[in-house]
Every structure is written in structure tokens, then in C-alpha cells.
Design a protein that fits this description.
Elements lengths: L1 H8 L13 H34 L10 H12 L1 E2 L2 E2 L6 H32 L1 H16 L2 H12 L3 H25 L3 H9 L4 H35 L8 H10 L3 H29 L7
Helix pairs in contact: 3-11, 4-5, 4-7, 4-9, 4-10, 5-7, 6-7, 7-9, 9-10, 9-11, 10-11
Organism: Streptomyces polychromogenes
Keywords: Cell membrane, Membrane, Transmembrane, Transmembrane helix, Transport
Family: Belongs to the binding-protein-dependent transport system permease family.
Length: 290
Amino acid sequence: MTTLTRTAAGPDRLPPPGRDPAAPRAGRLREALRWGALRTLALAVLLAAWQAVVSAGVWPRVLVPSPGEVWRQFVLASTVHDGVRGYGGHLLIEHLGVSLGRIATGSAYAVLAGVPLGLLIGTVRPLAVVLEPAVTFLRTLPPLAYLSLLVIWFGIDEAPKIWLLVIAALPPIAAATAAAVRTVPGQLVEAARALGSGPVSLLLSVRLPSALPEILTGIRIAVGVAYTSVVAAETVNGVPGIGGMIRDAQRYNQTALVIAGILAVGLSGIVLDALLRIAERTGVPWRGRT
């Protein structure tokens, strides 16, 4: 009876002899726990070294506060205490949310402009000769170099901040798109032409899907560039905003709060980059396949 049941079920449904189906999953779990323990150990060593430097009095506390002082400022900026709401009337998460909103807006505009610009540079040679040096010129400029000009043009409200993030994020997207379109395999292009694809169909059905993995990588890099530029963008009238909070705390030598803000930026950046990696893997499952 047992033999008949197995035969009816089909041999393909039975696990190979001597192999546990849960073994790969358990191995991945052990590996994740091992790497997690290593990261935790590295963090503990870093905090211990930091505390040792502070206890030894190598630098004054106003320059290098202890981890406990940074944590206290982190808590104070994140809660309502003695009738005071966070810092500057806003909680830390609200400062961070405003900055993330600015980054999202600036990055979205950069994608809308940068991808078509990169497609033109990568496919139309005369336009590439004219536009590519301009993209390279913008890519080499530090954000603070044109912030003052943007303030003169647009005032001190939201417009100069968004424009600064757009200008910072657009060149990596355009450059990555142009490079990706140029490296599309010639066999794919010739096969599509042989099947009767015109220039527009060739661009949308062959070049763009083939280049999409590199374009998404360029977008991820551009979001990181926008993130690193947010402090510069919020130098002028940036509160609420995590960059504005950091700049304001720096003016009053609140070093512990400055460090707490920097840590908030870094940790949220790690989370954001992880989400973009997931979106990249989900959006282009054919990446790395031939």
C-alpha cells in the first residue's frame, strides 16, 4: 500500500534520499545569525573604544561627548519633555520625515528628467556631444557651490532645497542611463530590427529593458547623493528638517545632538538603501541572466 501511494504521488515529489529539504533554509539562518553576531560585536567594540576615549579625557566633552550623552540627546529630541516638543518644536522623527520628503521629491524630479536625458545621450550622437559635457560639469560641482545662487533665484523657502537635490541627483541617473543604453548587446538590437522594430519600438522594447538594471543602480546612487546633500540643502531655513536641526545644533555647540542627528541620517540611509535594493531585485528579476 505504501509503495502504491508513493508511485501515484510521483517520484518527482519525493525529496532525494538522504537530503533534508529544510537544510538549506537552516544553513541560511545560521549564516544570517553569524553575520548578525559579528556586526553586533563590531558595534560593541566601537562603543567601548568611544567610551574609553571619553573616559581618558583625550578631548574635551564639548568636542567628543560620551555615548550616553548622545543617547540622552537622541531621546530628548524624540520625545516631549518639560513641555518641550523634541527640538525646535518638532520630534526627531518629524525632522527626518521632512528631509526624506524633500529627498523623495528631488529624486523623483531627477528621475523624470535624468532617464530621458540619459536615453538621448546614449542613442543620439549629436546630442551626446552637446549634453554629456554639461552632465559631467554638474556631476563635479559640490552642492554648496550653487546653493547661494539658488537662494538668490528662488528665495529661502522650499524651492532652492528641492532644486539643489534635483541638480545633485540628476547627473548620476543620466550618466548611468547613457552608459547602460550604449552597452546593450548588438545582437538584441539587430534581431529587433530584423523583426521590423522602428527607432521608438527599439528604444522602448529592447534598449530600455536591457538597460533597466543599470538605470536602477544609477537611481540608487543618485538617492544616496541626494541624501548626502540634504544637510547643504537645509542650511538655509531648514527647520524642520534633519539637516537644519544638525546645523542649528552646531551653532550652539550641541555636539551630542549633532552626533545624534548624524546617526539618525546614517541609520535611515541604510534602511532606505536596503529598500531600494529590494525594489531593484523585484523590478528587474532578469538582472545577471543571459
